[in-house]
Amino acid sequence: MNKNPASSRLLYRLTVISFVVSAFLHAIALFAALGIMQPGLDIEKSVLERAIYVAENSTLWRLGWHLWQLVALANLAAAVLLMLYFNNVRRQTASIGRLPFALSILALLFTVAAIIPEQWGEYALVTSFVEQARQAVCLGNASEYVRWEARWIVMTTTCGAFGYTLMQLCWTAALVAYHGHVRHLKVFLILSAIDLVAFTLSVLACHHAAAPVLAGGIEYLDFHLVVLFNGIGFPVLFVWMLAFTAALGDRHHEFFRESSQQLQHLEFPTNSSLRWTSGLLNSKGIRDIMRLVGKLARTPVLTSDIRNVLYLNWLVPAERVSKLLPDGFQVDSRDSMAVVSILTYQHGGFGPRFLGKLRRWLPSPLQSNWRVYLDATKQGAGAVYFLKTCFNSSVHVIGSRLMSDGLPSHKSG
Fold first, then answer.
1. pTM
2. For 341-366, what is each residue's pLDDT tens digit?
3. CB-based contacts of 142: which residues, under 8 Å, 6+ apart?
4. Where in the chain are the domains?
């Protein structure tokens, strides 16, 4: 029995925000590592060359590490919110046991265990390490510099990453325990396996690479393996975090249903080669992610030179139409009859307005809108409800499903 679903919805929304923000911060920080930080981390260069870059580009160097500090903060927020969410759902929903909540507590502990050495190292990398780089450049001797470099790399990439890998493992197990439908999580579990293996190998490779330097040498051993495994792990992690959020949302909406969910379901025609995409497009979790992304990055205004318009109206028994509306909506009727309107037209140069005359080269699908008028005393004068919107173009169906929240389209036969 759901006692207070509103609290669970609030925690769910905050959890979605935290995971999506964390995913994109990971991506931004990774691009920073490959760009502004890479010359200072490139083991193929000499130690002194790396020190010169850090000393001469200290602002960019610090900016890159500050981004990774934001990533750590986002991970901590996600861990806390996920724990609170699982605890709340456990209290609200009798069928949810303690296991997801217990695993989320363990994930939080691993997150904190990862943050302590990682942030110790990253704080040093933006403070004392920069001064050590300047001293190495002034003296023309980077032997002391490289040992501090190895120490902070181990703190961040070995100790920190190991804790985060255990955190990810606990999150994966918690989601599986919460979701309950393992066969629906095949893609997510494949991503999890790839990431866990990649990051585990990265941790081991980093420990192996830094050992000679910590022992007094100046050369890392097989550091390219660390780069390789991180190059696999971080891109997959971005997709994994979004897949985690989507799967969490799908299960959440099974417990806390919305009145309009029956109108969201999409099925492609049986002869369509894109029928396999319907599962993704019907995902309520993916819809919630797109809602959040849409608030942050507004979609462009679309323009079309419409032609070949066909507008038809039918009088249909109101009781039949009412069955198609969500709870709380009432159709406008006269003598127990309601007007159902179907507007079908051909698009022309359908695309973003900012493209101007270039829109003429864009595809021009057929679109059909099926709608009814709502009771003005209940929903306000002129209120219209779209029962269905259809395109004859799979590309436009997919695009509008991902970019339009209020009017999801369907594929015509």
1. 0.84
2. 999 999 988 888 888 888 888 888 99
3. 46, 47, 48, 50, 51, 136, 218
4. 5-255, 275-411
